Amino acid sequence: MTSTYTLNNGVTLPALGLGVFQSAPEETAAAVETALELGYRHLDTAAAYGNERQVGEGLRNSGVPREDVVVETKVWATDYGYDETLHAFEKASRKLGLEQIDILILHQQAANLFDRTIAAYKALETLLADGKVRAIGVSNFDIPALTRLLDETSVVPALNQVELHPYHSQPELQAFHREHGILTQAWSPIGGITFYPGPWGDERRSVLDDDALGEIAAAHGKSVAQIALAWHLQQGRQVIPKSTNRGRIAENFDVFDITLSDAELATIDGLDTGSPSGPAPARDFDEKSLFPIPED
Asked: 85 and 123 in contact (C-beta within 8 Å)?
């Protein structure tokens, strides 16, 4: 199991990072500091999360050298457009307290605004060429959106951050990523943040309560969460589990000694329901979705 991946432009990314989606600003700096103390070297945030400033604060407070940590953030659709996205970089840079952002990606495909999405990605290409970011990519892009992006822009995304966990493994999208040299980055990689409807009628289930995963976890003396993360890493996906709890932050990082058998991997692959829990990637963005991103 690898501990790092090399992106398609040569940038090295740790295989496992800390996500801060839904981390309250008042808890984020401490969570970042804890994660870096425990060995994490990748932090994933977003303008829309409202905690970029606290991610930067936690990084500075940790004492870990800046150059040792990969910082990733996302531009929200409100700031799509060429000039708007250049300005979005300035806002993110100011909040994070960083002159250079390691990975900057578009947060949504914004299907009904895709001309603006393309313009935003071209701004990312400019930022990359100018050395203001080290790698660029996208999030929540499906195959049609990726296909159009590849047709209309010059730089292949380094990664696509998508919902991916044992109940929603998106094999076709993963195959498209492999074909084009795009790293699959999984948000909600454990699948325990919410409950998933799946094919069970009105019943909703948590990945953490899955019997098959529980049996595999017991066989390895690990938690279900750790088994889910190992499943990703063993199949070449980068993961960003979220927690503000020290024990869980440590547990999520203690997975590199797990080796799942081919049969175990196949069992977990077989749990896919084809049903996401999050919003459809190709949804339209209305006025409510296009909320403003503060300057500071």
From this structure: yes
pLDDT per residue as tens digits for the range 82-111: 999 999 999 999 999 999 999 999 999 999
CATH number for the segment(s) 4-195+228-260: 3.20.20.100
Tell me the per-residue pLDDT of 40-88, one tens digit each, with 9 for 90 and over.
999 999 999 999 999 999 999 999 999 999 999 999 999 999 999 999 9
User: Which entry of 49, 80, 167, 196 is annotated as an active-site residue?
Assistant: 49
Question: Does 49 qualify as catalytic in the annotation?
Answer: yes
Q: CB of 49 within 8 A of CB of 23?
A: yes
Domain boundaries, the chain: 4-195+228-260
- Residue 41 three-state SS: coil
Nearest partner of 143 among 167, 164, 185, 171, judged by Cα? 171
Which of left, alpha, beta for 201 (phi over 0: left; psi -120 to 50: alpha)? Answer: left
Bridge partner list, 162: 186
